Structure prediction request, 422 residues.
Amino acid sequence: MKKFILILTLLTGVNMMVGAQKPHSRLSIGGYGEAVFTRNFYSDKYLRYTDAETYKNDDSHGRFDLPHVVLWLGYDFGQGWTLGTEIEFEHGGTESAVEIEEEEAGEYESEVERGGEVALEQFWINKAWLGGKINLKMGHIIVPVGATNMYHMPTEFFTNYRPEGESTIMPCTWHETGISLWGKTGKWRYEVMFLPGLDSDRFGRQTWIAGGAGSPYEFKIANSYAGAFRVDNFSIKGLRLSLSGYAGNSFKNTLSVTQNDKYDDVKGTVTIGAFDFCYDAHDLIVRGNFDYGHLSDSELITKYNMSMRKDSPSPKQAVASDAIAAGIEAGYNIFGLMENKKLHHQRLYLFGRYEYYDSMHKTEGTIQDAAWCGRSRIAAGLNYRPIKDIVFKGEYSIGLLDKAYNDEPSISIGVAYSGLFK
Prediction:
């Protein structure tokens, strides 16, 4: 009898364990990564823009690259408190590299893109109220300006690299230490953010204000402050419409603050307005963006940067007063036309993309426009997704420059993933 009771007890315990629900895991682990091979059918010489004719028929060159490999860790403390962290390795390195400087006679220079050896792209604590309608996020946060900063995982765009226009004229991915108030209510998502201003010392010709984010030091200077916002609407099924913007001063937001009276009234105010959208339904994905930015006092900032010491972190280049980026891409899932049920969980998108951008769209005073900074880019190719979180990409693209320069065709193939592991 005792043996029977013991066996019954064990069986009852096993059944209870099998029937019980798996406890909610408070720890989340995820990430994304990209590996790309590219063959560029144009010159990679540093003088290809200043002496285009000489390098018109140069040999092609190839590259293997790891654009981004990211590990994401999150934790739910309970009672509306959550933690998010994101560690990023760019190009498989430690954010230091040797580059050939186009502006300085082709010299080899060691560049440090951001202080530290590994980029901590996100580190924040979030408190949620009213079921997520109101949230306060504090720490190192993504600045939600433009489509690419908000949706930068490789499964959220068709090309092997992030859309070239936005990632040229703006920091990408743009992350700063600050405070964000955000939430979702009905068909709307909103966010407003308080953050330190950019540093105009590191603005440049080819990338406009992109170099002014982050910091080459072990801390972020905050002599000036800025604000950013984003509003998303999801009223139409499958469609997202978004507006975002940024405003903040950038001059004297540096260690080397000038005492010259000539620059007393210079603020270097950066303002950016952006619209983007995404339609995803009926096996069709269409995405688009339009971004416009203005920098006040660009002529005086250029003169100041040009006068800085050679060992300063400034590229010492002319900077434009206005920059622009616009793009649209569309892809159709070919497998949606087929009756084979085995293909229904897979996707094969045939896509095309067009974009135009110019980091020197308008210049001020005596600053000369570098026409090669403005270009159109056309890309077409395939994205194959065997499962939701993995994508294989292949594309042909060409950069169409002013007639004084050589166009820049290339082909690339890559593989990427994004998702939660736990």
In short: The two ends are 45 Å apart (CA to CA). The helical segments are 2-19, 147-150, 164-169, 298-306. Residues 1-22 have pLDDT under 50 and may be disordered.
